[in-house]
DNA sequence: TCGAATTTGTGCGTATGTATC
DNA sequence: GGATACATACGCACAAATTCG
């Protein structure tokens, strides 16, 4: 019966969650079965089931039919540094950022011309249907896929120049700022809009995740004198990485 | 009984979902009630309930007790600006950022002294068990909860000063940088680490979500001369907001 | 190899509390 | 107040997967 404050299934879920986060139920161990939960907490089958479902929705545990409900492993997310700003070397709080900030690993890409969709056109401040160069990237770090990226550049900017294809020529793979500089486009600003959502099936396939995993999505746009010259969607598995920004104050 | 392929509740949920996305059940309309679903699809009460729960977990509908289950509007995620950097006024690409960057709405908070956990101690570069001032915030924008925040400040920094309690005194609610300036602590750097995960049940209760919804989590730390003076966890519902960073290049 | 026990996942019927209309 | 509808809760049943003797 409802006697106290919150629903019984949340109380049970909360207690189990506490045991998981404080380590008394470490990864790979089995939760008490539904029957055991029923006994231990003095609740019904439905409440025990609902409590497990809460923890499953939170990604803390996974149910294996016929076997049990197991505590998931939660790797410490690594950092991906996103800021051009660098602190004075030797400043103690930033050791790790320096350590893992520049290890970029390997990547693959392929480019194709395309027409700007409505969404891309809006981000690049061009008209839908205008020609753009669309490039897809897969970034790997120590063999593990860590990041997907799709970028769009208006052909009005790079068309008929040596840097039209981001990964070809002497400046291949050099980054947007350097490539644009080569054609006298001075990139001076970048915006990154960070969001998150459940990963799509194809994304999780590429990233090595399982359905239901969360991804962080960054919509990045480079500007030159207030005009967008490149925009990209960056997709990162949220269980393995965090995105670090380092900003000066004022 | 299960005769075909997938569970009954998924079949019902799938049919209702189709009607929602193709527009035959537009936003703000009411779903068939549990009883009606039971009749129309020839299923039990439990199946009808479970089907509604699936749609609620996907954020497509919201249940209002005593009234009905309503199709949600799917808002374009709004921006929350996180950068101190401001572009020269009038620069066209940044109109919206200027427009909604500073509308902070209302908030509530309460503070209590506590001992630093291992995780907090690491972030503040102090010892676990050291005294900290812990403050919880709930931010609202037009009545809707948009953000939860929990901050920790070492009492070694603010103890026995007028700004020990973030929300009291003449500088209450003024922000970390201003408050610290009042006690001659010059905040010069901030790091923000953005991650994402399924929201916890309590968080989603406060944010008006449903178990399984994704939240963006920002771990923010302010530094003064390389020393951490405040750290906070900011929790934002990912379906309604994005976090915008605006960075100078170079 | 077989079978029994366990466990999850799904499904059913019902009852009660409570919010809304 | 009454009717409606959602939210929580109880107890039960069965299929499928797994485990283990």
Structure write-up:
The structure is a homodimer of 250-residue chains. With 250 residues, chain A is an alpha+beta fold. Chain A is built from eight helices and ten strands. In chain A, the strands form three sheets. A six-stranded antiparallel sheet of chain A has the order 4-5-6-9-8-7, with helices on both faces. In chain A, strands 1-2 form a two-stranded antiparallel sheet. In chain A, helix 1 packs across helix 3 (45-57) and helix 2 (34-41) packs across helix 3 (45-57). The longest helix of chain A is centred in the N-terminal third of the chain and has 14 residues, at 8-21. Mean pLDDT of chain A is 85; it is low at 84-102. The interface between A and B is large, with 57 and 55 residues. Strand 10 (241-248) of chain A pairs antiparallel with strand 7 (189-198) of chain B. Chain A binds a DNA duplex (21 and 21 nucleotides) through residues 1-2, 7-9, 33-35, 43-47, 49-50, 52, 63-69.
Short précis:
Chain A has helices at residues 8-21, 34-41, 45-57, 95-101, 118-124, 155-158, 176-182, 201-207, and strands at residues 61-64, 68-71, 78-81, 106-115, 131-141, 144-154, 189-198, 214-224, 227-237, 241-248. Chain A has 250 residues and is an alpha+beta fold.
